[in-house]
Design a protein that fits this description.
6 helices, 312 residues, rod-shaped, five-stranded mixed sheet, 2 domains, alpha+beta, Immunoglobulin-like
């Protein structure tokens, strides 16, 4: 932290190394739609006795015998940061269960908000989810009862302006955390977050020392600089309190101390010059403190981002 490169390095690590990748990762998902397969349950388990039973499904449109019946629960949610309006939809989320399977029944279970006005349209093996508007975090939960081959998984498609692909998450299959897609952004964020931690560790003692002497000069002993009379007083003060001063500035102070013994120099002028430089450096705390806080905040953001990607 004593090097003059610290402010540039700290800002670069915080803003460019951590902030920019995370911001880019957030903005690229400004429009996103996710369909979750929450559960898939076979209601007619295979058993020898099932061959001796006749199970029929009846409603006002059909009356048919069924051998296999699977109940699905889905959640459609706007995971982006912009609303999705009906006018931007060329093809609503469509679930096709395939030939030989038939959707017997489907309905909306709940939605947020309650007046979302989502509706389900079914035709043989195809189910379509329609909605007039999905604001960010809005969702609709719906089910479907499908007669046909056991273990079926629907083919899911959609075509919506601004959304390249509908993200399908099958929660019925346990995906190891190590296999979950994290994206390339996690790597530069992890590297620069580590650098941020190292910078914070390197700079903490110097920031604390700077704050301590600033507090002494401002509150506890405002006349401490006036008590510096002799060369030894300045040398002791610099060694004890100015460890945070960059090497370049410290060499300037040492040069003035060397001039102290030069008879060609006015000792009073040297003393006053030393006091002015020391006082100026002590009161220049806002810049280093702001950079330290900036690095701290962005490092914490980086740590949070990494935890979300790897843990949750």
């Amino acid at each position: 932290m004593k090097k003059s490169i610290f402010p540039i390095l700290g800002i670069f690590v915080a803003v460019v190394g951590i902030g920019v990748p995370i911001l880019w990762d957030m903005l690229r998902y400004k429009q996103a739609l996710e369909l979750q397969i929450v559960s898939s349950i076979s209601l007619l388990e295979k058993d020898p006795i099932m061959d001796k039973l006749e199970i029929r499904y009846k409603d006002k449109y059909k009356d048919k015998q069924i051998k296999d019946l699977t109940k699905f629960i889905f959640v459609l949610i706007n995971t982006g940061r912009r609303p999705i309006v009906e006018e931007h939809v060329q093809r609503f989320p469509t679930l096709v269960f395939g030939e030989g399977n038939e959707i017997l029944f489907a309905e909306v279970l709940r939605s947020d908000p309650n007046d979302l006005e989502a509706r389900i349209q079914i035709d043989a093996d195809t189910l379509i989810v329609k909605f007039p508007l999905l604001n960010p975090t809005d969702f609709v939960e719906f089910n479907s009862y499908v007669s046909g081959y056991p273990g079926i998984t629907p083919e899911i498609t959609s075509r919506i302006q601004g959304i390249k692909n509908l993200n399908v998450v099958n929660k019925t299959v346990e995906v190891p955390k190590s296999d979950r897609k994290k994206g390339w952004v996690i790597y530069p964020v992890a590297i620069f977050t580590t650098l941020g931690i190292l910078i914070l560790l390197a700079g903490y003692n110097e920031i604390r020392q700077h704050l301590d002497i600033h507090r002494v000069v401002v509150r506890e002993n405002p006349h401490i600089l006036d008590d510096l009379k002799e060369k030894q007083d300045f040398e002791k003060f610099i060694d004890n309190y100015l460890g945070f001063v960059p090497n370049r500035e410290k060499r300037s102070l040492e040069g003035l101390l060397e001039a102290w013994d030069n008879s060609a120099e006015d000792i009073a002028d040297v003393r006053n010059h030393l006091k002015l430089l020391i006082q100026k450096r002590i009161f220049e705390i806002s810049g280093p403190l702001a950079i330290f806080v900036l690095v701290l905040v962005f490092t914490l953001v980086g740590v949070s981002y990494i935890l979300v990607k790897f843990v949750f």
